[in-house]
Each structure stands twice: as C-alpha cells, then as structure tokens.
Amino acid sequence: MMTARENKLVEKNMTKFPKISAVIPARNEEQNLPFVLPKIPSMVSELLLVDGLSSDRTNEVARELRPDIEIVKQTGRGKGNALRCGFQKATGDIIVMIDADGSMDPAEIPGLIEPLLHGYDVVKGSRFLPGGGTADMEQHRKFGNKVFLLLVNLLFKGKYSDLCYGYMAFKKDVLGKMELVSDGFEIETELNVKVLKAGLKVKEVPSFEKKRLSGCGSLRAFQDGRRIVGTIFRLRFSRQ
C-alpha cells in the first residue's frame, strides 16, 4: 500500500508517474536488510541489490524479504564500483541510492523524489540542513567533510551543505552527462562535483543518518579521505 505522501505525489503527476529504481550496494548485510528492504516505499518499482561478494546470507535474505529484488553481481571492489554496476542495470526513469546498513531511512525516499518531479535533475540528502542530522559521524570525519565541502564549493562554485553522503536521487538521463569512474567511497564526491560541472539543477533536502545497525562498515577515514582529496583536484584540472 502507498503512504498518503506517495498517493499525493501520484495524484499530482497523473500524466506519467516515473519508474523508480533503488540501487542498494551490500556486502555482508544479512542482519541489516530486514530493517531496510521491507521499508522501501511501494513507489519504488525496481530494487537492485548489488552484492559485493558477500560471505553471509545477504542474497538469500534479500530474496526472502523481497522476492521481486534483482541481485546484481559486482564486477570489482568498492562502493563506487558497486553503484556503477547498479546504475548500468537500472531501468527506471529515476534512480535512488540507498545504503543497506540501516543508516538511511527509506521513509525519506518520497522527499528525495518530489523535487525531481518539479524540474530538478538531482536531489541529495544533507545531514547539515535544518531537520537533518547524524548519529554516526566522529569529530574527525565531521572535520574532514567540512574541509572537502569547502574545497568543492570554492573550486566548483557550489553551495552544498554536505558532501560525503550517499543518500541521493537523480534522473537516469543525467548519467550520460557524467562519466563516473570512481571505485571507492569517493564516488559520492565525484558525483556531486560532476553535477556542478555539468550545470545540473540540484536541490538538497534534510536527511538524518542513523548508526549502522549491525556489523562493521568498510569506510576507512584517512585512506578514503586521501582518495576524496585526489578526486577533487583531479576533477578540478580535468575536462570531465
């Protein structure tokens, strides 16, 4: 059943409500998927779980929870590679990126979709807008995010309030304007910078990031931070 907000979105766009695909990178997330997949709103008609060579029952649990889910095998390593694999398989008019660890609330998806129905090309969640927040960010990561954010806004004339956060939705056709190449967590920075370079219409909406429910994430703050800085400067001096 659709929520009241979803019904309202459909009613306001009766001519052609877009097909929405959710791309969910996952590696050993069997314990977290029960708190994510059943909560994906019904407005999302295509679920793509990109499996990063899980050694637990991630794939089996995903199929038990959502028999309609499509399991995409990752071709390489890293979150960026997983997302790019998912983007290639997605058939929706709109693509939503959401993590499998329970940190991103699926109930926020309609809020990411709505601006796309009113002329925006990309909508990104922000933990630092009023109404947003985070329960999963140590001080050194907050400092790093501020530094990266300052660099991007200065070098690419952006107005972002958040950078290293991957809860986003965008029209699929914008992928043709951004040749994404990142394999790791720097994919989020690459995507956000290329949005600015392509002159796309982008909107930020508040989002609250919860702690990962179970298990350990693969983010390594200092190593991934170096990759993010390298990505920023590579994009500053490249034509892509």
Task: Break the fold down into its secondary structure elements and pairings.
Elements: H1 4-12, E1 20-26, E2 46-51, H2 58-65, E3 70-73, H3 79-89, E4 94-97, H4 109-113, E5 122-126, E6 133-134, H5 139-156, E7 168-171, H6 187-197, E8 202-206, E9 208-209, H7 221-236
Parallel strand pairs: 1-2, 1-4, 2-3, 5-8, 6-9
Antiparallel strand pairs: 4-7, 5-7
Helix pairs in contact: 5-7, 6-7
Can you tell me about this structure?
It is a single chain. The protein is an alpha/beta fold and 240 residues long. It has one domain: Spore Coat Polysaccharide Biosynthesis Protein SpsA, Chain A, CATH 3.90.550. The chain is built from seven helices and nine strands. The protein has helices at 4-12, 58-65, 79-89, 109-113, 139-156, 187-197, 221-236; strands at 20-26, 46-51, 70-73, 94-97, 122-126, 133-134, 168-171, 202-206, 208-209. The strands form two sheets. It has a seven-stranded mixed sheet, sandwiched between helices. Helix 2 links the parallel strand 2 and strand 3. The protein starts with a helix and ends with a helix. The model has no long low-confidence stretch (mean pLDDT 90).
- What is the number of helical segments per DSSP (H or I, 4+ residues)? 7
Order of strands across the widest beta sheet?
3-2-1-4-7-5-8
Q: Tell me what portion of residues adopts beta-strand conformation.
A: 15-25%
- Full CATH superfamily name: Spore Coat Polysaccharide Biosynthesis Protein SpsA, Chain A
For the record, the CATH class is: Alpha Beta
- The domain count comes to 1
Biggest sheet record? 7 strands, mixed
How far from one another are the termini? Answer: 42 Å
